[in-house]
Amino acid sequence: MFGGPVWLAGCGNMAGAMLSRWLETGLDPEKVTVVRPSGRPVANVRVLTAPPAEPPPAMLMLGMKPQMLAGAAPGWQAASEGALVVSILAGTTIETLKALFPKARRVVRAMPNLPVALGKGVVAMHGVRDPQVEALMTPLGLVEWIDDEAHFDAVTALAGSGPAFLYRFIDALAKGGTALGIGADQAARLALATVEGAAALAVRSDATPAELAERVASKGGSTRAGLDVLDSQLDVLVAATLAAAERRNAGLATSRG
């Protein structure tokens, strides 16, 4: 686990999920400082409303809204000097981060997704590989380094936004069951358990998800009838969904809302 002081500049849902997992897996809460204007408590760590006048931390993680970074950066110059700066801000490039924090020891982009709170997430990384930051991210789930930063917005759309898309599918699956006459609560339980089990099997199987679908769908059977409908629309719909998320990721750093 990361040994030096860790400061979080902002602590939204994603940063909070990461922090929760880090504390659960051994990060000393006395080494953590969260700085947020509201001063709202976070777990059992120190929370301040402005960066403290202390020596720079070993790691400074940027967790504010991307469009707030330019205005906030001057107040974090002292804290970034000699520190490892890790950004989880969508659409904010390494070039931008280096320009805003020129005295940082190293700058790395990271894009986690919400299941990091359970150690079952994905953390996409870009920048010069740093053993310390990789060790810190490993307890969160799968860590994938993205060599070409041009692909980072696409990876963010797939892995960062992907849980929300999957939650929508689970909800739609339950609603579909309700439309067939199953009680809403029971349909929700069935849908959630079905997705949980299917995902666990896909992770453990040597077969691809496409191959597993074919194993369930016998010729002329009920699953095949459903897949014929789903397959006619799903690939196009998901591609359009990811493309919309990718476009928005690219514009977030300069957007006003």
Question: Could you explain how this protein is built, in words?
Answer:
By secondary structure, this protein is of the alpha/beta class. The protein is built from eleven helices and eight strands. It has an eight-stranded mixed β-sheet with strand order 3-2-1-4-5-6-7-8, with helices on both faces. The longest helix is centred in the C-terminal third of the chain and has 21 residues, at 184-204. The chain is elongated.
Helix and strand content put the structural class at alpha/beta
Strand order within the widest beta sheet: 3-2-1-4-5-6-7-8
Q: How confident overall, as mean pLDDT?
A: 93
Q: Give the SSE order as H and E letters.
A: EHEEEHHEHEEHEHHHHHH
- Biggest β-sheet: count, sense, barrel? 8 strands, mixed
What overall form do the CA principal axes indicate?
elongated
N/C terminus separation: 36 Å
Per DSSP, what share of the residues sits in E-state strands of 2 or more residues? 5-15%
- Kindly state the number of beta strands: 8
Rounded Rg:
21 Å
How much helicity do the residues have? Answer: 40-55%
Q: Which stretches are poorly predicted, pLDDT < 50 over at least 5 residues?
A: none
How many helices? The count is 11
Q: Strands, helices and their partners?
A:
Elements (H helix, E strand, L loop, with lengths): L5 E4 L3 H12 L7 E4 L10 E3 L10 E4 L6 H4 L4 H4 L3 E4 L6 H7 L5 E7 L8 E7 L3 H7 L3 E5 L6 H9 L1 H18 L4 H21 L4 H8 L5 H10 L2 H18 L6
Parallel strand pairs: 1-2, 1-4, 2-3, 4-5, 5-6, 7-8
Antiparallel strand pairs: 6-7
Helix pairs in contact: 6-11, 7-8
